[in-house]
Amino acid sequence: MSVPVLVAVAWPYASGSRHLGHLAGAYLPADVFARQQRIVGNEVLMVSGSDVHGTPITVRADAEGVTPSVIVDRYHNEFVRQWEELGFSWDLFTTTGTENHARVTQEMFLAQLQNGHIDRRVSEQYYDATADRFLPDRYIEGTCPHCGYTEARGDQCDDCGQTLDALDLGDPRSKISGAVPERRETEHFYFRYSDFTEQLAEIYKDKSHWRPHVLNFVLGYIREGLLDRAITRDIEWGIELPVDDLGPGKRIYVWYDAVIGYLSASKEWSAQQGDDEAWRHWWENDDSRHVYFIGKDNIPFHCLFWPAQLIGAGNLHLPDDVPANQYVTFKGGKASASRGVGLTIDEGLALFEPDGLRYALAANFPEQADTEVSIESIARRINEELVATWGNLVNRVLSMLHNNHGVQPPSEDRTAEDQALLDTVEETLAVCGQLFERVELRGALRTAMAGAQAINTYLNATEPWKLAKSDAQRSATVLATALDAINCIRVGLAPFLPFSSARLDEILGPLDGWSTRPVPPGTEIPKPTPLFTKVDIDAIQVS
Known about the structure:
Radius of gyration: 26 Å
Largest sheet: 4 strands, parallel
Number of helices: 19
Structural class: alpha/beta
Number of strands: 17
Strand content: 5-15%
């Protein structure tokens, strides 16, 4: 039975170029999973967009002396171009700057206010007397009270991942003037996250299938008790409040509105389909499945704050799985856009073909632990695994079939050895499917490649190139069996390799489900061209 699957993907700040750590951590896993779910036959809605209200945007705009919209346009357009070059299969990639997103955010705010989960409070916040302005969290840096990292932001520490209150930072400094900020009273709306501690604790009793590092992180927060947080700021860049209780100069703060993007994007997509109610099929349907692809620094926002906001607004579907990835490290340092560590996506695309880059990063998805990536390791994986195992296999089988037969020959008198290979690849595809269901994408790729290696082993044992001279019929059967096996394994690899898979579709026909099927005898086999280009490692090591 077809299942409505929401693939919800972290919203990148339109404040700078994204790096390969972002790509491997959240965006590529989401596309791989969404593609597989579509092959299975599920109804997939994959949404995300550029977060245009993040304070990193205004920080960069201030530094460049331009308006935030200039920064947003620059990087949103860059993201859209990169997704296209990487073959991403978005249903909608939008921004949080749309009228639709503002309306949905304001509607959620009003629903939560009416339900008693939002109230007004006077609190102290940092003020930069030199710049004559209150400082949003990202405008403050200091020492993390948990781990001692000296460049922690006012909302979260990049080093230990803890969410923070800017007032708890040691040695705080303004990113605008460098001055030591002072505390001043200001009034804001607070979301009462503490209202939901017990309810979330009950929900997470049934999440034993989640990744251990995600569940342990969440349960740690719940044991301590959720804290109420201000959801407005003294800023000019952001969504306007739907009430005027606080007076001028207040806006809804980014980390409250950004997660609402998953809902607002679903509604925007729905409107584009000409059916304003279509979004309900995913959001008001107990049979739907919501899977969120994020990095581990976003765990509290997606596993605690967002579910609380959904419950507080009414009967909306909660996350079913949040397979948050760990970090990608580049030559020992955590890949970071703000600190300039690691290759940008554009730099990666300049060095490697899209399918090659997708493969190498997928083979290193940081699903359970931080993983190390380098230019050299990417190149080696492409050459020694993708080209040598899969690309060469497909090319040599198609070449022998083209040269000797021109078509897929009939499979006559298959032996136990032939059937054993077909049984092996069929089981391989089944295991791949099970791993996908558990969002163990790295394992699914490894399993599929093991299936490809099994075909190589079979060919090396049967040697159809020699049989062609001594037993042409047996050679034809071996090659036909090998192509049927390739046709099975390409199903498991298709979510990872969209461009080369599309080329195989032209020869073998489109995929028609997550299952194996033989290549019909008589199928024309044209002269093949290599699926992938070997990387010249010596030429790129100068980078």
